[in-house]
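STRUCTURE REQUEST FORM
Protein name: Cucumopine synthase C-terminal helical bundle domain-containing protein
Source organism: Streptomyces cellostaticus
Requested output: structure tokens
Priority: standard
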Amino acid sequence: MSEKLPGRQIEISWPDLGITVTADLDDRNPALADALWESLPYQSLQGHALIAGEHLYHVAPIPTLLHTPHTTRIPDRREAPNGTVFCSGLQHLGIKYGTLTEPMPATPVGQIRAADMPALLEAGAAIWDAVYSTKKQIIAEVRRAGEPGGHRIPMLHATNTAASHLIADIVAETEKIWLAPPAELDDLHQGIIPSQAGNFGTVLPTLLFVNGETRPLGYAAYGGLVRAAVQDMPMASLVHMARLLVGVPAEFLGYCGLEKLWAFTQRFLGVLDRLDRDDFYAVTSQMALYINCLGGWNLQLYPWETGDHLRQQDATVGA
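Status: completed
Returned output:
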């Protein structure tokens, strides 16, 4: 049985919906709970799972989530109680509010109070409608219970001058797009594509490819490089893996319209051989947060209703 952490209650609020719920942090993953607690308050674009079921998640501006070790892991989050709050190595804060279909391991840090479950269900339905249909941009605010809200993007530091300047520019861009759509993605979703990526004037295939490349670049490539740096992979191997993993997808995304991402990537690759482990960690962590933010906006802006005529069929019918 998990124990509540004394004095560790957080409020998760969606001001646009007029809904606030309270969660008790517990002792199942104290290092993750500490990372969350120390990051508060913050705000983020609220997302909703698109294929996994009744699950809310948003990108949390907490670099250490990428590598903080877990103590307790639920083998199958479908079996977690509704209202379970998770912190993820994908840099997410998630909340299960109903039935899930994806049998994914997960690391819990707390539980929404029972009295707030009806409000959580209401929020879940409204957020699904916003992500899937209306495109209303709903902001989540996470704060210590009873304390003021607020927001900041953490900035890591590097001793190498070029890396330090790169980090400052990445942070400035991340702050600019954290709560407002990136102009490049906004243009792309309106069909403004300077390179004309998309055969015969089409837009939807380009949107699909951009979404499909951005998510693994942030989650797997940069997240993996951060974890490898923390886990003491030799620097020569880190540099080699960075060159293998990040250049090709970033160049493609630049062609599709994400020119700032490609420019940041070129600067990273240009300074890569001069970075020590701490500077490598700082740059890759800052890039991961920036790209995961882009990924969140991709999911918000993508016209999911385009495929509303396609609905799953019962495979047992006629069998």
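Reviewer notes: The chain has a mean pLDDT of 96. The domain at 4-144 is CATH 2.40.100.20 (Cyclophilin).
Form closed.
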